[in-house]
Structure prediction request, 482 residues.
Amino acid sequence: MSTIANSKYEAVIGLEVHAQLLTESKAFAPVSTQYGGAPNSQVTPLCLGHPGTLPVLNENLVRYIIRMGLATDCKIAEKSIFARKNYFYPDLPKGYQISQFETPICYDGEIHIELEEYDKIIGLTRIHMEEDAGKSIHDQDPYHTLVDLNRAGTPLIEIVSEPDLRTPQEAYAYLTKIKQIVQYLEICDGNMEEGSLRCDANVSIRPRGQEELGTRTELKNMNSFRNVERAIAFEIQRQIDLVEAGGEVVQKTLLWDSNKNETRQMRTKEEAHDYRYFPEPDIPPVVVTDEMLSEIKAELPELPDVRLQRFMEELELSEEDAIVLTENRYLADYYENTLEKLDEPKAVANIILSEVLRVLNDRSISIREFTISVERLAELVSLKLEDKVNSSAMQEIFNEMLSDERPPEELAEEMNLIQVSDSGFVEPIIADVIENNPDEVEKYRGGKKALIGFFIGQVMKQSKGKANPKQVRELVTKKLEA
Prediction:
């Protein structure tokens, strides 16, 4: 990507992100939105486009989009209307999609992104409500395309950025921040692989310093944040190569092929008038009252940037640790719930950042699937802070706790890992070690203080790891310098 950064051209990138909302029922019909149902098992006559069916607005669709609007400093329209977006496709049985066009409910917002070298504010043109289409399946029958309408009518919000992004890395950071915000707001799980977060990218290039925008292409079919980053990087370079060779960029829609790491043409790009938008006659305008707005504001959780600052200022965590802990709301919740059981911010952060995250990564699971409760994790950290176990023993006990639900101290005793801090147990071992190593004793007393590690190691070896290293150091030092 360095060739892009050093080029005489700059990229102009705008993202359209669809987030599937965590409502229990569809946008305009009382049927489940749960993922994974048998094909066409979650449909109603409305989803199937039967004549005479009337949509009824799901109130949570409105409340959830207002949450997102408030969290991104959007203006909230007092009155907005739905529109019909008309197009033909097999998985759209009504022949139109209920969306918003001229009057989005949220507009003029912003999202703050952080990269290693700089921070940046990305403008939001609008966030509007719409319903999802169904799904066409091309790979299960060699002769036919199958249609699953379970997803038809699922409530979505579309988040449209200003063309403020300039690099693939900025696009990646922007998507990461959106995922973080929707998870914190608990309006979307942010799972791109399951399609609950989807992204289309508009990409163009222009000579550096030029104000006028170049001809853009639209990228689709990107099912991960990394694929979005790779697809944008590929498309920027493709356009630069094309222009440098004397060609012109043509406005069209491209599909990203993640296997070949390249784009291919899907269709020439439609304009808004191709969809023949007109007001939806069956749904009344959405009116947002001051009372409703105040109520939703009061429901907003602490947002990620605020939580990050609090972790650094109140809990005295490093910025690096605080960023990792607050990146995912559920991980941050797990951390704070553990602190309610044991008020040791740094010690608890250390075990989560090392051991807990190791297990989550190794098993490809989320913190909500993690088997060790906050109570048991707090008990384990307490054992270490009370010097009942050492660091390596804590790690061994942690690994055992993943499959054994007994209390950590019981496991430590069974595994013979409890440290002995009884001086009556340790002092005879120290005396024996000093008596059997007269040369080292003489060197230590002659100024080679680094030999303290040798004596501690010998004591720990003879005690089979049971002695408390901190106590051993104190008693050995006292004995040698007597």
Notes: The CA atoms of residues 389 and 418 lie 5 Å apart.
